[in-house]
Amino acid sequence: MRYKVIITGANGLIGEGVLLQCLENQFIEEILVVGRWEIEIKHPKVKELLIPDFLDLDDFDDQLKGYDVCFYCANITSVCLEETIYNHITFEIAVNFAVNLLLLNPNLMFNYLSDIKADRTGRSSFMQGRIKGKTENALNKLTFKRIHHFRIGLVKPLKVQQKCGFFYKTFMNIYYPIMKLMMPNKAVTMKELALAMINVLLKEYPERTVNAKDIRYLAQSYYGIESVANKLAAMRPL
Fold first, then answer.
1. Are 155 and 13 in contact, with CB atoms under 8 Å apart?
2. 83/96 Cα distance (integer angstroms)
3. What digits encode the pLDDT tens for the residues 154-191?
4. Which of the residue ranges 16-20, 100-104, 198-202 would you say has the lowest mean pLDDT?
5. For the chain, what is the domain count?
């Protein structure tokens, strides 16, 4: 099966990386990049849809129909943001977009870019963790064919990426091997993350929450997802 996918956040580090990996993937036949601003990447697989207000989607029903999966990679740092603003961007916009997509595509799969600090109990002292957890809870209540929450920490960019900043890219290129060794549950490469997001489509993957170890396993092969799931199950305590 070949997939038609929607990607949000393609002007950011993760969305750009997922887009680049989708362009190379034989199972992805069409990509709709949805955002507020145009992207620099042009390719026969790619269509763009510019939406000024993600809370007002009524005029875009026709363009958003006919898709198999959404890679929701739109993300923003919580640093220096008031909680009401971060909640509006991270929770309200994401859930509204997901609800509208699901109404237009009843068999939709949804891959949500979450955070390693996400806390579904709402008791976290970190604002980002509480709101990401609240968003996961809301998305879990929707009737997606499948949904996966990718809880990421540190991500090493692809060499060709432009949306990550020179200093961050240089820092990660130098120190990533140490970070992976010292913080294996927090650090992944962009290629691993993007491949994992694609690979959960190819066979029914059982876990909704996908952490760094899961991401590395899922990235290993386009095939054999069932055996990967068995390995992960064996790693988890009874």
1. yes
2. 18
3. 898 888 887 777 777 888 888 888 888 888 888 999 99
4. 198-202
5. 1
